[in-house]
Amino acid sequence: MALLQIAEPGQSTLPHQHKLSIGIDLGTTNSLVATVQSGLPTILKDKDDHVLIPSVVHYGKNITHVGHDALPFLLTDAKNTIVSVKRFMGQSLNHIQYKDALPYEFDETSQDIQLKTEQGIKHPIEVSADILKKLKTMAEVSLCGEVTAAVITVPAYFDDTQRQATKDAAKLAGLNVLRLINEPTAAAVAYGLDQKKEGTFIIYDLGGGTFDISILKLHQGVFEVLATNGHPHLGGDDFDQAIAEMIKKTCSLNQLNHEDKRSLIMEAKKIKESLSTHPDVTAKFTLSNGKDIVFTLNRDTFILETNDLVQKTIQPIKRALSDAKLPITSIDGVVMVGGATRMPHIQSEIKTFFKQEPLNNLNPDEVVALGASRQAHTLAGNKSDQDLLLLDVTPLSLGIETMGGLVEKIIHRNSTIPVAKAQEFTTFKDGQTAMSIHVLQGERERVSDCRSLANFTLTDIPPMVAGSAKIRVAFQIDADGLLSVSARELSTNKETSVTVKPSYGLSEEQMIHMLTQSFENAEEDKKIRALSEAKIEGEQIITAVQNALHKDGKHLLTQDEIKDIQNAIYTLSSSLKESDADLIIGLTKNLNALTESFASKLMDQSVGNALKGKSIDKVNL
Ligand code: AMP
What we know:
Blueprint: E1 21-26, E2 30-37, E3 40-43, E4 53-54, E5 57-59, E6 64-66, H1 73-76, E7 81-82, E8 115-117, E9 120-122, H2 124-143, E10 149-154, H3 160-172, E11 177-182, H4 183-194, E12 199-206, E13 211-219, E14 222-231, H5 236-250, H6 258-275, E15 280-286, E16 292-298, H7 299-305, H8 307-312, H9 314-323, E17 333-337, H10 344-354, H11 367-379, E18 390-393, E19 398-402, E20 406-411, E21 416-417, E22 419-425, E23 435-441, E24 451-458, E25 471-477, E26 483-489, E27 494-500, H12 508-520, H13 522-556, H14 559-575, H15 581-594, H16 596-611
Parallel strand pairs: 1-10, 10-11, 12-17, 14-18
Antiparallel strand pairs: 1-2, 2-3, 2-4, 5-6, 5-7, 8-9, 12-13, 13-14, 15-16, 18-21, 19-20, 19-23, 22-25, 23-24, 25-26, 26-27
The chain binds adenosine monophosphate.
Residues 27-30, 207-208, 235-237, 269, 272-273, 276, 338-340, 342-343, 365 line the site of adenosine monophosphate.
């Protein structure tokens, strides 16, 4: 007879209890919320059947409007109506582009972004929390129950600060965040699991304010992110800005007030969206001073004028392909995500570049939220989805400082996480009892060009001859991207470790800047490394030969031999002040050759010493 399990009173789950979980695509322009209903990811609508909820918040005197309710205030009360707040998340005031073109009043006394509104100072986290609250309530009304948990998507380039800011906003909104996942990864979840099982895919995500490119490998339903790249400030908004500039130029508009600036951008956006389905569009609107504006734009002119923006998306694709070491021909499909990919010249450019039709059979606005809802459903415990394993990558390489101010990379950029790597290092000086471990992030060869993450010291190393201690330095990055570094002296097993957040405080610009610099300086870096290594080797041999000369030179060598060696030491040490790696290597070889017979005499002497006083049969040869 089968045994029945009996739960503690009050601890059994109710039959058919279903935990309500949602996936949120917290977009720059619009946000969406989805849930899994009867096994199918479904986008939720508000009471007016809207699917896209504008990521807009209006702070009125005693009332806050969010989403569609906030839209009318864009024109009438621009200063108190916040759009694209996602661009401000985890950023400081000096990160904001086009600050003067924005209709807000910033608190300039703070490094943080603080918006002065009718309801007082608002931090981007609070604004974002108001959007999330709206989405949570909308889902609860639609699902007739309390939402217990959510998965929220963020751009692949969001660093720890930005992710943390998003998590804080969710907490403020009363949401339990099960996980933050990258937007392209969520899109792949929606596509890959529903339709494709195998292959290598590009996720091309052009939203309102950000551009992300990801290369994903799908193998038997398991995703692996091979590489990510992108542009933190490129999206549909830039195309709006380009059209607004055309209108300003054509209609000779200067010195616009806040409301007019906003209405110009709104008109530009309408024109752009309309041009996706119409060959030409005419906009008619009136400025606050009563001036009527009539502006016509045809698709060909629009394509010509915004071609540079389209081209800006190609460079990151090339970099991602090169990071993943993949030719264009190995890409099995290109998934289009984000409302701005509806623009026909984006679609055609991508088709030409990859020589294939992009995949766009799911709504580009909804893909991310659908994938997120599927993840939320699984993580909330409604389904044990063993197949769905998401792997992520480290955006920048991690390593430690070595002699000569160089960086030895231990975990290379774009390694899939979780990951653990270890390498052995040794001491530089005789009798060295401590070793300073300087953890660095970046692609460059020199410490001064990388970002310092942590510093710690391994002490109590037993005194040994330089180069004989073995220190094992291990790097480990867990699934949440947290890095821990440990250093262990292998003869005593003494260990010291530190936990660091690899990307804490690193802005998207800094990350992009560091990557660009490393590409631009790769050749120069190689030369610097070669020179530095040559100098270290030269210094090491000089110290070793000088010590040996001091100790045994007089009784093992002739005066002339000593003179020759000292001359070679002098020329080598003078060359160390120069920047010629080949010269240093040559002179080091010369000193090595010159001291060869001295070295063998030293060896004979130490063997002799070891045998002294022992009969031949006692010697273990
Ligand atoms: P997302 O951040 O994914 O919500 O994308 C929003 C961006 O997509 C905005 O810049 C929109 O103007 C743009 N967008 C939405 N629909 C269209 C369309 N039909 N044609 C061109 N751009 C569009």
